[in-house]
Amino acid sequence: MTRSPPTPRAARLRAAMLRLDAGETDAAKSALQGLADSAGVYRNTARLGLAVIALNANDYDDAGKSLDLVAADPDAPITEKRSAESLLGLVAANRPATK
Is residue 84 within 8 Å of residue 67, measured between CB atoms? Predict the structure, then answer.
């Protein structure tokens, strides 16, 4: 049984995640931004990845922006929406209070 090669976007997503696992955060972020800005099928997965990168950097504003995009996307899979909503709770709990 032979497997068909992954689509270019799937390959880019996989490469970005491997970079993230390897600790290459800047390279992963750059690759994910390219996928998140598109109307492609992996845009919300990329946005969740960007949110995790932002959370690890304690950048709650950027994390919130990425997560809001996932939560508001009518075409996002329900599992990704639920992940975004859960992470938005984390953002809200850790975001500094405004004066």
Answer: yes
Say how many domains are in the chain: 1
CB atoms within 10 A of CB 44: 25
Q: What is the CATH number of the domain that holds 47?
A: 1.25.40
What are the Cα distances from residue 86, in Å, to 26, 51, 79, 80, 98?
25, 12, 11, 10, 22
pTM of the model as a whole: 0.88
Q: What is the mean pLDDT of each run of 10 residues along the chain (99 residues)?
A: 68 95 96 90 96 96 97 96 97 82
Extract the tokens encoding 23: 């600790």
